[in-house]
Every structure is written in C-alpha cells, then in structure tokens.
Amino acid sequence: MDILLIAGLWLDGSAWDEVVPELTALGHRPVALDLPGQGDGDTSATLADQVATVLAAVDAAPGKVLVVGHSAASNLAWLAADARPEKVAKVALVGGYPAADGSAYADFFAIEDGVMPFPGWAAFEGPDSADLDQPTRDRLAAGAHPVPEGVARGVLRLTDERRFDMPLLLVCPEYTPAQVKEWIAQGLSPELTQATRIEYADIDSGHWPMTTRPRELARILAEAADSARS
C-alpha cells in the first residue's frame, strides 16, 4: 500500500528519511511529501496549497492509501480523509490530533515578517524533547523551515461526515493512549469525540519518533497499512 508521510511544522520530507527504507523493507510504498512553504522558500504558500499537494498525492496513488500526519500535520491527514474518503483507507496521526472545522491550522507561535520561525527548544522542554541529544537538537533546528503565515493561520474546512467512520490510528509518543482517551472524553478534540473507529499505538519516544525511533514507528505504520489493506 502507498503510505503518504506528512511531517509537522518546520519539517520537509527528509524528516522521514530513516522511516522510508524501513517501510519499503516491510513491503509498502512510502511517499514522503514536501509541502509548499516548508523547504522551498515560498513564504507566500497557504494552507490551501499544502492541502492541494496532499490531495494530489492521494489522487496519484494507484489504489487506496494510508495517510500519516505528524503533529500539526495531523490536520492535513484528516483533511485528506474528509476530501477523499473513497481513496483514503486509513489515517495515522503521530503526536497530534485534528482541530475542528473553522479552527486555525497551527497558530501556535509568533509570526515574524510573514512566517512562523522555529521557536527554539525551550518551547518543547519536557517529554516532547527528552529523548533528543544535543547533536540531534542542533541538526533539527538547523534544518527547520519557517512556516508561512498563510499556512499557520489558515482555516480548516471540513465538510464530509464520512470522515468520522474512517479507520484511525493514534500513535502516542510523548503521551500515552490513556491520556488521549481522557482528552477525548473531555471534549478537547471534537473530531475525535465523533470518530467511531479509533485504534491506539504507544511508542516510547518524544515528539519526533521518526528521528529517535524510526524502526519502531515504521513497524507501527506498516501494521496499520496491513490492517487497512486486509
């Protein structure tokens, strides 16, 4: 099965470099997406541009796909399920969950000169970054791409209620499945509250398991693809 890999804020497709060969070895066809405005220097890119890139990849696949969204890009994966329910076999969300219709995509940090730069590691102290050594932090920060304002402050538009019946895997890195279930019960993600087919996978990592636990993450995603295919 084609597995579309969408990295979160500040990252390009190379974030999945260690996951891709593992997925290939497990019999799948991984496609790591480069999003407009994250790596190409296009500061005018919008959320609509990123959605269009994801949907083009979904449409180009020969069959149904597993769409994987990391962190804020969980929204992009969910938007793909909403727009292409007949083509998306399953969605996997790694370290994130979708916001509600009408919400901003990722208006989390300060905008400077039309972009949202990486805010530094102080913003992620604690479980998010506990498994990152200093060389890895330095490498990730050096490769971080400022996110265009039109992406960060873009508004989510969800229209097809069939998304709530989409098979959905929540991969839990810096938190546990039990914590996510509690957040859902509290109504912190109205989208997940209405979702009917949620599975959970725990992974002992921080917020970037594609960097620190690539083999384990690949195994989890391959199993999700296998279950969707069967």
Automatic annotation (TrEMBL):
Any Pfam family hit: Abhydrolase_6
Source organism superkingdom: Bacteria
Residue stretches spanning the membrane: none
Domain AB hydrolase-1, first and last residues per copy: 3-219
InterPro entries noted in UniProt: AB_hydrolase_1, AB_hydrolase_fold, AB_hydrolase_sf
Molecular function per GO: catalytic activity
GO cellular component: membrane
UniProt cross-references to PANTHER family, sorted A to Z: HYDROLASE, PUTATIVE (AFU_ORTHOLOGUE AFUA_2G14860)-RELATED, MONOACYLGLYCEROL LIPASE
The protein's name in its UniProt record: Esterase
